């Protein structure tokens, strides 16, 4: 008669029981992350009536100027594509206030300074344009007929 799992003795030790806290992924404690209420307070303080926020931009000669930029939640997909491609002129023309685009051209920031600027805008608005609020895939499979 062949042995099966019910009739044979267990030769390995049972797995230790883990608590839900041990199973859950670690929570990141980032100083830059804001909860929703803090993000709304920051946005309300800094946002102008037409949806722009004032953010400092550093230029090539350590020069810093304040510019008005659209909230990161209002950035168009084309602006995001330009930023991802490294086409900073197109990105800045899309997100800066009309008069501040000239300030950007005069400052002539380096790539790292543009990245710092975009990160600061996202931090001040408390939103990340890369995170989608759209629905995820369903855990249920659809039945094929």
Question: Which secondary structure elements does this structure contain, and how are they paired or packed?
Answer:
Layout: H1 20-23, H2 36-46, E1 52-58, E2 64-70, H3 77-85, H4 88-95, H5 98-107, H6 111-125
Helix pairs in contact: 3-4
Describe this structure in words.
The structure is a single chain. This protein is mainly α. It is 39% helix and 10% strand. The chain has 6 helices and 2 strands, in the order ααββαααα. It has a two-stranded antiparallel sheet. α3 runs antiparallel to α4. The model has no long low-confidence stretch (mean pLDDT 74).
What structural keywords apply?
145 residues, mainly alpha, two-stranded antiparallel sheet, 6 helices, 10% strand
Spatial arrangement of strands, main beta sheet: 1-2
What does the main sheet amount to?
Answer: 2 strands, antiparallel
Shape: elongated
Helix count equals 6
Radius of gyration: 25 Å
How much is the average pLDDT? Answer: 74
Termini Cα gap: 43 Å
| Uncertain residue segments | none
What class do helices, strands and sheet pairing give?
mainly alpha
> What proportion of the residues is helical, as a percent range?
25-40%
> What's the total count of β strands?
2
H-E string:
HHEEHHHH
Task: Give the amount of beta strand, in percent.
Answer: 5-15%
């Amino acid at each position: 008669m062949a042995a099966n799992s019910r009739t044979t003795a267990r030769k390995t030790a049972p797995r230790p029981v883990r608590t839900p806290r041990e199973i859950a992924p670690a929570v990141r404690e980032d100083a830059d992350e804001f909860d929703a209420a803090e993000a709304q307070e920051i946005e309300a303080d800094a946002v102008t009536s037409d949806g722009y926020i004032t953010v400092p931009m550093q230029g090539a000669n350590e020069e810093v100027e304040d510019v008005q930029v659209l909230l990161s939640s209002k950035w168009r997909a084309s602006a995001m594509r330009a930023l991802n491609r490294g086409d900073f002129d197109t990105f800045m023309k899309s997100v800066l206030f009309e008069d501040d685009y000239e300030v950007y051209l005069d400052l002539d920031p380096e790539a790292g300074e543009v990245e710092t600027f975009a990160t600061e805008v996202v931090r001040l608005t408390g939103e990340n344009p890369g995170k989608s609020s759209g629905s995820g895939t369903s855990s249920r499979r659809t039945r094929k007929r």
